[in-house]
Amino acid sequence: MLRNLFISIVSLSFLLFTSTLTATQKPRVVILATGGTIAGSAGTSVQASYQPGVLSIERIIASVPEIDKLAELKGVQICNISSQNMEEKIWLELWKVIDNLFTHNLCDGVVITHGTDTMEETAYFLNLTVKHSKPVVITGAMRASTSLSADGPFNLYNAVAVASNVISHNRGVMVVMNDMIFSADDVTKSNTVNTDAFSCPNFGPLGRVRDGLPTFFRESSFTHTSSSEFHIKGLKSLPKTEILYMYAFMSDVAFNALAESGTAGIVIAGVGHGNYNRAIAQAMERAAEKGINIVRSSRILTGGVDLAAEEYDKRWPVSFFKTPQKARILLMLALTKTNDPLEIQEIFKKY
User: Fold this and answer.
1) What CA–CA distances, in Å, run from 176 to 145, 197, 256, 284, 290?
2) How many structural domains is the chain composed of?
3) Residue 233 maps to a domain
4) Is the pLDDT at 232 greater than 90, yes or no?
5) How would you classify the pairing of strands 28-35 and 72-81?
6) Residue positions annotated with a catalytic role
7) Where are the beta strands (DSSP E) in 125-254?
């Protein structure tokens, strides 16, 4: 039902969209709306609490002065949720819509409005699966649309500025927040409430936006988008993967529960350099006998986990600079191709 609704909305929208494009030379940008704080509303202009996912994409676009000078715009409401409620089926539908848009040359760039809680995860999933070179830019807000100084309108303006500019091609999926451009492979939410909430803690931002113009400082060195080896067309679901957070004198109860639940892969959010205690080490041995793939990551924000880890075991691939939540997504997609830990390790080196 949801899939048919998405397809019918997109088909109708772009029939209208393409009919208006012949008279303009402006870039064509499609905004796919999923809800979040950028679509949120509060009782007063100074109230911190709010209801996310209230405004339609049409109202959001209308709230941004001069945005239509950047590009010919079309908004499509994919869903209207808070991003902690993001679902696998929405990821798959976003991929299908974006793939169709680019395959049929219906636009020059895509912007996704999204809640900030899981924005980095949606960005990384699309970075690994959208096999096109045109820009996909994700943005959102830390303050509701009704706030005294809402950040959503300027974030959306900047996101469209990036998505509509030819210098943004071949850079992978990007997150644009607070005037900065971040790469999907390293971006993370690093503050819970401030408008300066996102960072690339290991490698720094890709660039910035000022006066409607993006400037890039660097390029991502990881494989992404048009060079990705992952093919998800036709998939109805992805392999089940979970994250287990390590801490002092942790028991194996949670690990065992995951191992018995039909999980195909587990990411260890280890202490320090991806470490874990004896109880977890023994549980990992039992999981390996069940064919469960395990990847070692770290709960520490910077530095990553490399092959020089304590008691390195090639049965447990390491995530390098991927956070646990990103490692989970990469493991999920790696498991669509292989169950071999050595091959999975090679995938983690590339992406």
Assistant:
1) 17, 11, 39, 38, 42
2) 2
3) no
4) yes
5) parallel
6) 37
7) 136-139, 174-177, 180-183, 188-189, 198-199, 207-210, 213-216, 241-245
In a domain, 13, yes or no: no
pTM: 0.93
Mean pLDDT score of the chain, rounded to an integer?
94
- Segments forming the whole domain that contains residue 126: 21-227
Give dist(CA 177, CA 91) in Å, integer.
21
Place of tokens 């091959």: 343
Q: Is the domain of 66 the same as that of 189?
A: yes
Q: Given a cut of 80, is residue 291 above it in pLDDT?
A: yes
- 209 with 281, same domain: the answer is no
For residue 7, pLDDT over 90 is answered with: no
Take residue 79 and report the two structure tokens written for it.
């869903």
**CATH for 310:** 3.40.50.40
Residue burial 107-130, b: 16+ Cβ < 10 Å; e: rest: bbbbbbbbbbbbbbbbbbbbbbbb
Q: Is residue 151 part of a domain?
A: yes
pLDDT (mean) for 222-247 = 97
